[in-house]
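Reminder: ligand-aware prediction takes two inputs, not one.
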Amino acid sequence: MSVSETGRILDGRAVAAKVMESLVQRTAALRDTGHQASLDALIVGANQSGSVYAANQAKMCAEVGIEYRLHELPEASTQEDILALIDRLNADDQVTAIMLHLPLPQGVGTELVQSRIDVSKDVEGVNPANIGNVLYGRRSLVPCTALATMTLIESTGIDLPGKLVVCIGASNIVGKPVAVLLMRAEATVVSTNIHTPDIAAHCRQADVIVSAVGKPGLIHGDMVRPGAVVIDVGITRVMDSETGRKRTAGDVDFESVQTVAGWLTPVPGGVGPVTVAMLLRNTVDAAERRISSTR
Ligand code: NAD
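Here is what comes back for the chain with nicotinamide-adenine-dinucleotide:
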């Protein structure tokens, strides 16, 4: 492999911008037929990071022509209060997409609440029924970070059948759905977790590495096969020893891996922006499906 074939950056912002462009056209087409794509988000309690995220979401939705409605419940809300709001949104024909900001107050069962979201409106793909549909390859709303990971891998042009992919981390919301999507793409998939011995040996064989752990510096250049695609899903806030300020770090030691990998996502600016774009794409998908199912 020549030097020019290593260290190419997978620019998540550019990939997200392309997706957003196509969404602008799709929401305009919906409006032409008298329909408005919308996203109903639920936030419980005063939660600063959630509020910042919600404000950012509202802005992104406006950019692509999605109407954003934020439903705020007080911190003292009970599980029944939250379920009642979800039931109301599920029953409302004008609501086609629902997302739930986390964390929920102590004592509220997050999984129980997520499971209550109507499968066809669950644009984060957190209802277990949607994960089941992903497994069976049926039409479903797929968790956004897993979709973002697939979109970035596919953007390299790699032909996945016959390729070995090592997934590091196997959570319900990222690692497992990524592994399932890769299986569906007929890659050979190795799913690893905290108990897997010698992850480095698996990685050295891999054509694609997906790291979704949240441990800065976990993946080093000496663990990567020359030319491999490396997708860094990890997000950890760390103190930068040079600037004395907090910054966001991925799982991958960028400098050492960049000299070996064929393609590499940066953090920030890799998986993160594409994940947001996938939430909006799921939102438009849900609106279009609702309309075609009522025709
Ligand atoms: P999680 O804590 O639920 O799961 C972590 C997984 O990593 C587990 O399967 C665990 O067994 C495994 N693990 C832990 N230490 C390990 C080690 N040393 N070696 C191998 N495996 C190990 O986390 P999550 O919710 O899946 O998130 C993972 C990371 O992805 C976090 O940093 C999170 O912030 C980030 N994340 C990013 C996005 C995005 O849009 N970019 C979205 C969701 C999560």
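Residues 145, 168-171, 173-175, 192-194, 199, 212-215, 233-236, 271-272, 275 surround nicotinamide-adenine-dinucleotide (CB under 6 Å). The chain has a mean pLDDT of 95. We will return to this case in the review session.
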